[in-house]
Write a structure and sequence with these properties.
- The structure holds 2 protein chains of 2 kinds.
- Chain A is an all-alpha fold.
- Chain A has a single domain (5-271), classed as ABC transporter involved in vitamin B12 uptake, BtuC, CATH 1.10.3470.10.
- Chain A contains 12 helices and no strands.
- In chain A, α6 (125-154) runs antiparallel to α8 (166-188), α9 runs parallel beside α11 (240-255) and α10 (211-236) packs across α11 (240-255).
- The longest helix of chain A has 30 residues, at 125-154.
- Chain B is an alpha/beta fold.
- Chain B has a domain at 2-83 and 149-162 and 184-217: Rossmann fold (3-Layer(aba) Sandwich), CATH 3.40.50.300.
- Chain B has helices spanning 2-7, 52-59, 95-99, 107-117, 132-145, 162-179, 190-193, 213-218, 220-226, and strands at 12-23, 26-37, 41-45, 67-72, 78-81, 150-154, 182-186, 199-203, 207-211, 244-245, 251-252, 258-259.
- In chain B, the strands form 3 sheets. A 6-stranded mixed β-sheet of chain B has the order 5-6-7-3-8-9, sandwiched between helices. A 3-stranded antiparallel β-sheet of chain B has the order 2-1-4. A 3-stranded antiparallel β-sheet of chain B has the order 10-11-12, with no helix packed on it.
- In chain B, a hairpin with a 5-residue loop joins β10 and β11.
- The chains are: A mainly alpha, B alpha/beta.
- The A-B interface holds A 28-29, 31, 147, 150-151, 153-155, 157-164, 202, 205, 208-211, 213-214 and B 57, 60-62, 77-80, 82, 85, 87-88, 90-94, 97-98, 101-103, 126, 146, 152.
- Chain A: Its main location: membrane.
- Chain A: It is a multi-pass membrane protein.
- Chain A: The chain crosses the membrane at residues 6-29, 41-74, 86-108, 129-146, 171-203, 215-236, 242-262.
- Chain A: It is found in: Cell membrane.
- Chain A: Involved in the high-affinity zinc uptake transport system.
Chain lengths: 272, 284
């Protein structure tokens, strides 16, 4: 069954969406969209370092994204620059550093577009194994961490005062984000990873009355986006990452009740 | 054995000795000695920026003291209502879920707490849909339902209507009477709080004065601190100080001289109270 590249991409993408749902909810709740983006951009530096040091790609990305998030937290604490400016500096300088390093390594042929925007053709059986094993670990840790992390998200002072050790929960959450970025890179690409976290979660908000149902509906919206996006990608020969994001955007628009707009668009295409 | 000590009548729950917190090169609060025992209600009063919130956060470990010591009883269970809680609209959070934020809760315990604060009918409402007063009641119910050893309330009745305010303070005292927990309270509602409090501590970057409400009420300072008609009507909280804390941490004394700290010379005694109130500005 996994002989077909499309099936492999679909299986991998669905695994990814299931993990991205709950993580993405926290990214949205904690207003960490740009933070996630910065971690994702640092992934290219991870790729470059992995090639240079001949590491497994996923491991390189995980390490660099993890370090970037820790650096951010530490710099934030020092409070010399605003978080916004810090994110801007780290986000683009890590991306640029990665691009420059890759350009220097002339002995290696790298499909840069594949890393930036995802490449369904590149998904191997091994990648699927990594996504499902890594994803299962991420989800298990998140479930274990759920109460302290959620309490810290609502109010960190209450969580701290009532003994939930929110700082530890937030630290582990950063590592989970780094893991998510490492396993998501091949499917959606570095530049679009955060959209897979944020858009399904935002869409899931409309169908949820508790944080847990929002996490589940975010996962389901993500699965639908992956299935729709990959199908369209195959059909129209578009890059897989952007196609998935466009599909997610459509689901989001439906969820926020843009039915009149959508109906008009559909009506026109039917009429034609 | 520690547990039994913690539960003993009059057991020390938290004790601060000469505690100070410094941020950005400025002491927010300094030299605070404060203790809360089981069954005791301690109320902090003071103008804006006098370090009340900083002090309670240090007491419960949200902030670390930069000098002095803070000792909490081992296994101390805290129920905390912060001064400000804002919940992002993207968070689907009902009152019932909020009640279980830091630990699971039996349904009857939840209902009991919500009934006590008068919002049992709102259990399935999303918190973003609550009014300010209702949300404050929900936060209080959440802290009560935990059955804490130490209840820490930072202006717990803000936004609550006047009759509700009195009822909630009554409830807080009843809870103390029934469960014997200790309560550390910050409040501006002196007229209501005074009657419910065992110990009043007045802060102004340091401890200005302290005592039982009875001793404070009888003292001449009280009249000047809280207004002569306190307790009768909705007294406006007037707090007279004879020195001003400058942004750089130094202090301008009543005679216009600048000092490194307030020293022991400051007070709230007769005569000085006649001074223009506007001279005493404490910006948060």
């Amino acid at each position: 069954m996994l002989d077909d590249f499309f099936t492999r991409a679909l299986v991998a993408g669905i695994g990814l969406a299931l993990v991205a749902g709950p993580l993405g909810c926290f990214v949205v709740w904690r207003r960490m969209a740009y933070f996630g983006d910065t971690m994702a951009h640092s992934a290219l530096l991870g790729v470059a370092l992995a090639f240079l040091l001949q590491l497994e790609l996923t491991a390189g990305v995980f390490i660099v994204a993890g370090i970037a998030s820790l650096a951010l937290v530490l710099l934030q604490r020092k409070g010399t620059l605003s978080t916004d400016a810090l994110l801007g500096i780290l986000s683009h300088s890590t991306l640029a550093l990665g691009l420059v390093m890759i350009a220097f390594m002339s002995w290696i042929r790298i499909d840069l577009m594949g890393f930036l925007f995802g490449d369904i053709l590149a998904v191997s059986r091994f990648d699927i194994a990594v996504i499902y094993a890594g994803g299962a670990v991420v989800l298990a840790v998140l479930a274990w961490l759920w109460r302290p992390l959620f309490a810290a998200t609502v109010n960190i002072e209450i969580a701290e005062a009532e003994g939930l050790k929110p700082e530890r929960a937030e630290f582990v959450f950063m590592l989970l984000m780094a893991a998510m970025i490492a396993i998501a890179m091949k499917i959606v690409g570095i530049l679009l990873i955060t959209s897979l976290l944020i858009i399904p979660a935002a869409a899931g908000r409309r169908f949820a009355s508790t944080p847990e149902t929002m996490a589940i509906s975010a996962s389901l919206c993500g699965v639908a986006a992956v299935a729709g996006g990959l199908t369209a990608s195959l059909h129209f020969d578009t890059p897989s990452g952007p196609s998935i994001v466009v599909a997610a955007l459509l689901i989001f628009l439906v969820s926020v009740g843009s039915f009149p707009v959508l109906r008009r668009v559909m009506g026109r295409s039917h009429g034609a | 054995m520690l547990q039994s000590y913690l539960n003993a009548e009059g057991a020390m729950l938290v004790e601060m000795k000469n505690a100070g917190v410094r941020r950005g090169g400025r002491w927010l609060v300094r030299g605070v000695d404060l203790a809360v025992r089981r069954g005791e209600i301690v109320t902090l009063v003071g103008p804006n920026g006098s370090g009340k919130s900083t002090t309670v956060k240090t007491a419960i470990g949200v902030l670390k003291p930069d000098e002095g010591t803070v000792v909490r009883a081992r296994g101390l269970k805290v129920g905390y209502v912060p001064q400000k809680v804002s919940v992002d609209w993207t968070l689907p959070l009902t009152v019932g879920r909020l009640m279980q934020l830091t630990g699971p809760l039996r349904t009857d315990a939840m209902t009991e707490a919500l009934e006590a604060v008068g919002i049992a009918h709102l259990v399935n409402m999303e918190v973003q849909a609550l009014s300010g007063g209702e949300f404050q009641r929900a936060l209080l119910a959440r802290a009560l339902a935990r059955k804490p050893d130490l209840l820490v309330l930072d202006e717990p009745v803000q936004g609550v209507d006047f009759s509700g305010e009195i009822a909630l303070y009554q409830l807080i005292r009843e809870l103390r009477d029934r469960t014997g927990c200790g309560i550390l309270l910050i409040s501006h509602d002196l007229h209501v709080v005074m009657a419910q409090t065992d110990m009043v501590v007045c802060l102004n970057g340091h401890v200005c004065c302290r005592g039982t409400p009875e001793s404070v009420v009888r003292s001449p300072e009280y009249t000047r601190l809280f207004g002569s008609r306190a307790g009768e009507t909705l007294a406006i909280y007037r707090h007279h100080h004879d020195h001003t804390h400058l942004p750089d941490g130094r202090v301008r004394l009543a005679d216009g001289t600048i000092a490194e700290d307030c020293g022991d010379g400051h007070n709230h005694h007769a005569g000085e109270a006649e001074k223009d109130l506007a001279a005493e500005r404490h910006d948060a």
